[in-house]
Amino acid sequence: xxxxxxxxxxxxxxxxxxISKQLSSKFDAIRxxxxxxxxxxxxxxVKTLSDxxxxxxxxxxxxxxxxxxxxxxxxxxxxxxxxNTREQRAWLVGLSDDAGATHELTxxxxxxxxxxxQIASRRAEQPDRDHFDTDEVFHQxxxxxxxxxxxxxxxxxxxx
Length: 160
Prior knowledge:
This protein has helices spanning 16-26, 34-41, 49-72, 86-99, 112-125, 135-142, and strands spanning 4-10, 29-33, 76-82, 102-108, 156-159. By secondary structure, it is α/β, with parallel strands linked by helices. It has a 5-stranded parallel beta sheet with strand order 2-3-1-4-5, with helices on both faces. Helix 3 packs parallel to helix 4 (86-99).
C-alpha cells in the first residue's frame, strides 16, 4: 500500500513551512523542504528568482526519485515545496499518481500584507535569508501565483 502525499499552496511568506511541520507530525510523514535542500546544496547561491529556478530544477529529479520510493514503501510524505502554479501542482500530483498514492493539498489563503509581514519577521530571525526574502522577490514570485481550483482534480483544504 502506498503512502499519502501532502502538498501545500500559499504565497511566499504565508506559512507553508509551519503548516508542513504540523502536517508531518499529524500524519507521521517525512517532510521534504525545498528551501532546506537548496540552502544545503547551494549555500548563499540563491540570490535571485533566476537562481532559485535554476537550482530548484537541478534537484528535481533526485527529489522525484526519493519521493516515489518513500510513497511506494507506504510512507507518508509532506512536500514543503511550492504548489503555487498549475504547473507546479501538476508535477507534484504526478508524483502521487506515479506512486499510486493519494494526495491532499492545503491551501493557505493569506493576504499580501500578512505574507510581507511574516517575510520581514523571517529575515530578522534568519539573517542568512535576507538576500532572497525581500519585498521585491515576493512581488516577482507572487506575479506567478495561481490559486488552486477544483477543476484541477485536487482534494483541497483551505486555511484563511
